[in-house]
């Protein structure tokens, strides 16, 4: 009996270190997009709270606990890192394989991202748990602050190599100063 | 000549000659220290020129740095820092700077005045492009590029702050201190290598200590604040919308491989304070351009900051009190002052040097460097030996950034200069010399007070304390041009003199904008920073108007030249566009497949096998796989959109021309989508996975566009529809399995066997693939019995390898884009080559797919008479029937006997292929009344490739028109 072998988006690309910056792949086994139907945001949030202990996060925010994560992902759209059952409440779509998720951390990480990301990521405005849909170079991405010097970047799976390439160049440029 | 022996020097070269300089000082300072006077040739007349200023406004000393692909032309020697091994070259001179053959232009100058080219090179007309322009361009010019790709790195970056302070002179430092102490997030940007502005270049006390010491102390205090970011070597180049400023940073330190040379910043600031200072302006006197004639403020900069005396016998010529400082500083430094010449009668100057009041410089001598000047004064004329003349025509506030959003400055008569109009740039205020406040005390005070206002506006509580400093008044008597023989240069960089501007006025180019274009004044890389005010003063005089009525030309970003390399940083090579790679990419490349771009995606063109020498051999073989056995192709790049909700069916009925609400669960249907204007937008299949659950596929090219279209429909056109969409293009790896053996192949990898009875043509549903949950669609883009099998993308690589290996065991294998294209052309299936944005459903023979039972986007517009006219060009198939079998896409169609000219055009070809199945060249194309002309022979002419062929018009479906193969 043949068996299909899984391969993660950043296999052969990560981890890597440039100067003080480390990049590694984040593997989430299950990621579902959750888009509540008209008038169902509150019941959806309540159902999620029941199932994973987290409700829908506010726009621009990501929340997490030991079991799951909820990341706002745009107009009436969230990504939930867990299996959920929301029949009739929300459109739930499997996104487990759609994203390359990269964790970038270390001293100067804001300087590296400032080379590619056009939004204000300073700690005073973009705090822990803040998330944004924005651009990284030419790519549309989601960025979440996960620590004082750590961010997670979600890009389209097919663009994993470009994501790593662009961050590598930016990190080299910062390190060269 | 150096006034002090430097402790640490490095060596650099200028035109191959080795010199020593202090690391970090400008190359201009090192050259002056070495007694180098001649550093450049002028743009048009190739006149010898020397260093004129000590800042980014430099007009003469443009040099090229480095060689080969890395050569960087038109760098101002006054801002270029000396470093070990730096190679600097002069420009615009041949064979050498001293003996420049093109200096002959200078002898011709009586004929080469403003407008000369416009008047002279008009006839014969074709000569302009072929002869005159290239010759003129070669003779006149600046540094050149190598034409090779430069591997140097540049970068771009974004920054954010509450307050951006532009310029770190006394006003900027006080502003930063006040705003920083109040707690604002501050960026202080200055284009110099060190902050302090004129405090570093003048001899003045602030708060009882020397200016440079006070500046250093203040900078130390600012560095200690976490909320203040100091950016040296950073020129703010433009003020743009929404508080965004462009800034160019020359990155500090020696050149190193992999280290960016420059960074182009986009700084977003809630508020900004312009403290850009002022630029000293020259005086137009005869032959005022000889090497050794420089700005008085520049002389003080070299003496006071870099301990370099630009001459041994100095003279000073000015119209304001500020010029007198120059003599005072030179004497203090021990440099001989041969004369101080002030054009005003009523001035008192004390000093141990000759003073001439009510005097003017009327002539200068010295071929490659200044040797003597002639002055006229009350007592007659007098010759003075001098090797350096410092001139000062007064100061122009640097108002540029305040005018970048269409504003104009206002004339202030007491300082004979333009000052900023308040409110020109939203969020920007001005302080210090750029505001017309010239004394150090006034700069410090304005800087602090303006910053306090800004901080208060941000809800902070600032405190204002201003240190004591010099507060002497700035007194000036305007002097623009001195009468006398000889050319009086105004725009040194573009070789424009007083007579050119008078000529412009005389020839009725009286508007300042017309004068600029006619004379090219202000059009050089310096954009007339130093020359504009003098030029328009001369124009005002020539036209009998006042200076305020004459007005200024338009100030535009960037304030200093910005290399395209900096603006486009990161966009070379792999940075040009993201690469989208499919899960089968590695396996395809391993099989030697040439990858071609499809939008951002990379797809295999074909899979070469041993012995194949031409792509057509591979392509033909892969077509035969599909027609005779089974082929496997990665189709993951097609857009896939998950649509769910009670309104999902209604949404599809609204965006597609045909009906999807009637589609049974477990079935797939082909759909056509129109734009609002009635033309075809995209096509594809949509599967119904559940009562309220569909998956739409789009073409690769239009995936993003369709997603946007659906989003627009849901948010704007039909917010009443309770449906949700999500792209799943990246989630699923999807493979076409096509050919008579496709079912057998599938049954070798599926956990449960499928049979045709359960899986008829256009069926869809869930399947298990080697233990993984997947989706199967029985659809066909090849006309064969075919499926598309999807699995979560993490298994894509594995499944592609498995499918191709199995296909090979059935006598088939992988096929690429070339074969895919041939297969679909044989079947007359359209792609965006046919639905290219100008074709309608009527044109492609699908007008009956626009259902009349419901409304859909584009339905009304598609019914416009012009869009359903029988005379339109309609989709047809074309078969080569003459001697020439090669058909080309983009060729035009003509009646057999008509001349192949535009007026006789009857249509064009869109897609071509050689069909190994039918063994002939095939094309799809559009032909007037095409659907009624099947059987007719027309002429195909490709004017570009010079190919002509006779083609028979036929139905676009060349192969298996009944469709039995796909259904069976």
How would you explain this protein's 3D organization?
The complex is a heterodimer of chains A (177) and B (968). Chain A has 177 residues and is of the alpha+beta class. Chain A has two domains: 16-27 and 97-175, 2-Layer Sandwich (Gyrase A, domain 2), CATH 3.30.1360; 32-94. Chain A has helices spanning 41-52, 109-114, 160-175, and strands spanning 16-18, 21-25, 32-36, 62-64, 69-74, 77-80, 90-94, 99-105, 131-136, 139-147, 150-156. In chain A, the strands form two sheets. Chain A has a six-stranded antiparallel beta sheet, with helices on one face. Chain A is globular. The model of chain A has no long low-confidence stretch (mean pLDDT 97). With 968 residues, chain B is an alpha+beta fold. Chain B has seven domains: 1-146, 2Fe-2S iron-sulphur cluster binding domain, sarcosine oxidase, alpha subunit, N-terminal domain (Ubiquitin-like (UB roll)), CATH 3.10.20.440; 155-277 and 397-403 and 418-457, FAD/NAD(P)-binding domain; 312-393, FAD/NAD(P)-binding domain; 479-550, Arc Repressor Mutant, subunit A, CATH 1.10.10; 581-637 and 731-824, Gyrase A, domain 2 (2-Layer Sandwich), CATH 3.30.1360; 640-727, Alpha-Beta Plaits (2-Layer Sandwich), CATH 3.30.70; 870-967, Beta Barrel (Elongation Factor Tu (Ef-tu), domain 3), CATH 2.40.30.110. In chain B, the strands form 13 sheets. In chain B, strands 8, 9, 12, 13, 14, 15 and 28 form a seven-stranded mixed beta sheet that branches. In chain B, strands 41-42-43-40-34-44 form a six-stranded mixed beta sheet. In chain B, helix 7 (296-305) packs parallel to helix 8, helix 10 (498-506) packs across helix 12 (532-543) and helix 16 packs across helix 21. Chains A and B meet through strand 7 and helix 3 of A and strand 8, strand 31, strand 39 and helix 20 of B.
């Amino acid at each position: 009996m043949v068996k299909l072998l899984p391969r993660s988006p950043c296999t052969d690309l990560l981890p890597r270190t440039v100067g003080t910056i480390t990049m590694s792949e984040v593997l989430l086994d299950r990621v579902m997009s959750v888009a509540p139907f008209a008038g169902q945001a509150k019941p959806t949030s309540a159902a999620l709270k029941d199932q994973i202990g987290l409700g829908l996060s506010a726009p621009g925010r990501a929340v997490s606990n030991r079991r799951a994560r909820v990341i706002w992902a745009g107009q009436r759209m969230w990504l939930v890192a867990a299996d959920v059952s929301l029949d009739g409440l929300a459109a739930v779509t499997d996104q487990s394989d759609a994203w390359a998720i990269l964790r970038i951390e270390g001293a100067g990480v804001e300087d590296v991202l400032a080379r590619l990301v056009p939004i204000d990521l300073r700690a005073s405005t973009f705090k822990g748990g803040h998330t944004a849909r924005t651009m990284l170079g030419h790519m549309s991405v989601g960025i979440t602050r996960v620590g004082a010097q750590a961010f997670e970047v979600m890009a389209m799976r097919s663009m994993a190599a470009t994501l790593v390439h662009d961050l590598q160049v930016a990190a080299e440029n910062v390190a060269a100063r | 000549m150096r006034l002090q022996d430097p402790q640490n020097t490095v060596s650099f070269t200028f035109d191959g000659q080795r010199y020593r300089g202090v690391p970090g000082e400008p190359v201009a300072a090192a050259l002056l220290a070495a007694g180098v006077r001649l550093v450049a040739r002028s743009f048009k007349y190739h006149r010898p020129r020397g260093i004129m200023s000590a800042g980014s406004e430099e007009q003469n000393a443009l040099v090229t740095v480095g060689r080969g692909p890395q050569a960087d032309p038109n760098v101002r020697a006054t801002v270029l820092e000396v470093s070990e091994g730096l190679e600097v070259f002069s420009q615009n001179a041949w064979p050498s700077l001293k003996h420049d053959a093109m200096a002959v232009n200078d002898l011709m100058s009586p004929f080469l005045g403003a407008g000369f080219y416009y008047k002279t090179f008009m006839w014969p007309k074709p000569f302009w492009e072929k002869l005159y322009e290239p010759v003129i361009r070669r003779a006149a010019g600046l540094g050149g590029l190598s034409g090779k790709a430069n591997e140097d790195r540049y970068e771009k970056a974004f920054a954010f702050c509450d307050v951006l302070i532009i310029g770190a002179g006394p006003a900027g430092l006080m502003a930063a201190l006040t705003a920083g102490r109040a707690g604002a997030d501050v960026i202080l940007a200055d284009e110099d290598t060190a902050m302090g502005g004129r405090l570093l270049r003048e001899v003045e006390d602030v708060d009882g200590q020397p200016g440079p010491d006070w500046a250093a102390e203040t900078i130390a205090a600012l560095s200690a604040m976490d909320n203040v970011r100091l950016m040296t070597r950073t020129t703010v180049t433009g003020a743009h919308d929404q508080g965004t400023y462009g800034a160019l940073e020359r990155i500090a330190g020696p050149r190193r491989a992999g280290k960016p040379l420059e960074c182009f910043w986009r700084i977003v600031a809630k508020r900004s304070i312009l403290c850009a200072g002022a630029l000293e302006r020259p005086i137009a006197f005869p032959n005022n351009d000889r090497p050794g004639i420089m700005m008085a403020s520049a002389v003080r900069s070299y003496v006071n900051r870099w301990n370099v005396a630009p001459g041994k016998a100095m003279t000073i010529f000015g119209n304001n009190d500020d010029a007198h400082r120059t003599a005072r500083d030179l004497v203090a430094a021990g440099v001989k002052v041969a004369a101080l010449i002030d054009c005003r009668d009523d001035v008192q100057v004390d000093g141990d040097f000759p003073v001439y009041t009510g005097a003017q410089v009327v002539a200068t001598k010295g071929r490659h460097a200044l040797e003597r000047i002639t002055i006229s004064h009350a007592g007659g004329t007098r010759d003075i030996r001098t090797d350096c003349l410092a001139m000062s025509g007064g100061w122009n506030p640097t108002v540029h950034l305040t005018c970048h959003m269409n504003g104009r400055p206002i004339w202030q008569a007491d300082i004979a200069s333009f000052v900023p109009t308040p409110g020109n740039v939203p969020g920007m205020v001005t302080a210090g010399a750029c505001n017309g406040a010239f004394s150090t005390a006034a700069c410090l005070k304005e800087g602090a007070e303006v910053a306090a206002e800004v901080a208060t506006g941000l809800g902070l509580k600032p405190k204002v304390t201003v240190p004591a400093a010099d507060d002497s008044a700035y007194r000036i008597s305007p002097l623009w041009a001195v009468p006398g023989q000889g050319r009086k240069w105004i725009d040194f960089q573009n070789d424009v003199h007083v007579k050119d501007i008078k000529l412009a006025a005389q020839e009725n180019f009286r508007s300042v904008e017309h004068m600029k274009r006619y004379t090219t004044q202000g059009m050089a890389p310096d954009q007339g920073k130093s020359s504009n005010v003098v030029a328009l003063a001369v124009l005002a005089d020539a036209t009998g108007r006042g200076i305020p009525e004459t007005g200024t030309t338009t100030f535009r970003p960037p304030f200093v030249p910005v290399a395209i390399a900096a603006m486009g940083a990161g966009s070379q090579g792999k940075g040009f566009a993201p690469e989208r790679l499919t899960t089968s990419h590695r396996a395809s490349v391993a099989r030697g497949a040439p990858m071609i771009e499809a939008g951002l995606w990379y797809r295999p063109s074909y899979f070469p096998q041993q012995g194949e020498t031409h792509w057509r051999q591979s392509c033909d073989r892969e077509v035969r796989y599909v027609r005779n056995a089974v082929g496997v192709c990665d189709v993951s790049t097609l857009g896939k959109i998950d649509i769910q909700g009670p309104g999902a069916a209604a949404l599809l009925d609204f965006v597609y021309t045909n009906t999807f609400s009637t589609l049974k669960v477990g079935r797939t249907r082909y759909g056509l989508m129109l734009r609002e204007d009635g033309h075809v937008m995209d096509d594809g299949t949509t599967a119904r996975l559940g009562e309220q659950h569909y998956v739409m596929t789009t073409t690769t090219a239009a995936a993003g566009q369709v997603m946007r279209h659906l989003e627009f429909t849901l948010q704007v056109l039909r917010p009443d529809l309770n449906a949700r969409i999500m792209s799943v293009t990246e989630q699923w790896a999807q493979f076409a399995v096509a050919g008579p053996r496709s079912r057998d192949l599938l049954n070798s990898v599926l956990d449960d066997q499928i049979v045709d009875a359960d899986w008829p043509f256009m069926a869809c549903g869930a399947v298990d693939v080697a233990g993984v949950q997947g989706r199967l669609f029985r659809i066909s883009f090849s006309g064969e019995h075919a499926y598309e099998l999807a699995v979560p993308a993490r298994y894509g690589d594995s499944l592609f390898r498995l499918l191709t290996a199995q296909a090979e065991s059935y006598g088939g294998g992988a096929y690429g884009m070339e074969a895919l294209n041939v297969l679909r052309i044989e079947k007359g299936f359209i792609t965006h080559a046919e639905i290219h944005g100008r074709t309608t459903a009527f044109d492609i023979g699908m007008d009956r797919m626009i259902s009349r039972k419901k409304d859909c986007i584009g339905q009304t517009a598609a019914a416009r008479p012009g869009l359903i006219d029988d005379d339109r060009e309609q989709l047809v198939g074309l078969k080569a029937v003459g001697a020439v079998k090669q058909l080309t896409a983009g060729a035009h169609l003509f009646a057999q006997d008509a001349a192949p000219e535009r007026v006789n055009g009857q249509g064009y070809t869109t897609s071509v292929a050689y069909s190994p199945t039918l063994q002939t060249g095939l094309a799809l194309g559009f032909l007037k009344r095409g659907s009624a002309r099947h059987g007719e022979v027309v002429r195909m002419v490709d004017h570009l490739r010079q190919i002509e062929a006779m083609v028979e018009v036929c139905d676009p479906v060349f192969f298996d028109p009944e469709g039995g193969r796909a259904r069976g």
